[in-house]
Amino acid sequence: VCEVNRQNRAGYSALMLAALTSVGPEDMAVVQRLFRMGDVNAKASQTGQTALMLAISHSRQDMVAALLECGADVNAQDADGATALMCASEYGRLDTVRLLLAQPGCDPAILDNEGTSALAIALEAEQDEVAALLHTHLSSNQPGFQSQLPPDSQIATPGGEGNDKR
């Protein structure tokens, strides 16, 4: 009877809009049921954003976690080639970046349509803690990792002494 994946004129489904809401613990079960019934990886018709990207851009960490539990694809790309990790990196959402990197298959090396990585986006947005986390993750998980940092970049490494040239 209810078409949970039907998009409105702006291109958003009920599931995508639910990802933007603030609900109490007693209502989270309803939201999770909606996430399980619908396509958590559907893309908005105009921008190509997923519910996960929308939740991240609106600081809805509880919805991010719920979407991931329901199978949201961390590597899905929008119309510009951006991923959820890129969105979290741009906004400096350190806890969200950690959560996304902990997901099996999360690929921080994906490039958007302009050839920019999540690390480069974090650096450009001056999100130093996020950039340091991404750099550490990339270098520890890819043996032949070539740093994606420009030669004059400075990143404050967690627990390190100030800014180190990398």
Helix content: 40-55%
The chain-level mean pLDDT equals: 88
Order of helices and strands: HHHHHHHHEE
What order do the strands of the largest sheet run in, or round the barrel if closed?
1-2
Largest sheet entry: 2 strands, antiparallel
Task: Name the CATH superfamily classification of the largest domain.
Answer: Ankyrin repeat-containing domain
Report the span from N to C terminus: 57 Å
> Proportion of β residues?
under 5%
* Cα Rg: 17 Å
Report the principal-axis shape.
globular
Number of helices: 8
Which stretches are poorly predicted, pLDDT < 50 over at least 5 residues? Answer: 145-151, 154-166
Give me the secondary-structure category.
Answer: mainly alpha
Which CATH-level-2 architecture of the largest domain?
Alpha Horseshoe
Q: Count the strands?
A: 2
Number of domains: 2
Query: Which CATH C-level class of the largest domain is it?
Result: Mainly Alpha
The CATH topology of the largest domain comes to Serine Threonine Protein Phosphatase 5, Tetratricopeptide repeat
Task: Write a brief structural summary.
The protein has 166 residues and is mainly alpha-helical. The protein has 8 helices and 2 strands, in the order H-H-H-H-H-H-H-H-E-E.
How would you describe this structure to a colleague?
The chain is mainly α and 166 residues long. It folds into 2 domains: 1-73, Alpha Horseshoe (Serine Threonine Protein Phosphatase 5, Tetratricopeptide repeat); 76-149, Ankyrin repeat-containing domain (Serine Threonine Protein Phosphatase 5, Tetratricopeptide repeat), CATH 1.25.40.20. 42% of the residues lie in helices and 4% in strands. It has a two-stranded antiparallel ribbon with strand order 1-2. β1 (154-156) and β2 (163-165) form a beta hairpin. α5 runs parallel beside α7. Mean pLDDT is 88; it is low at 145-151 and 154-166.
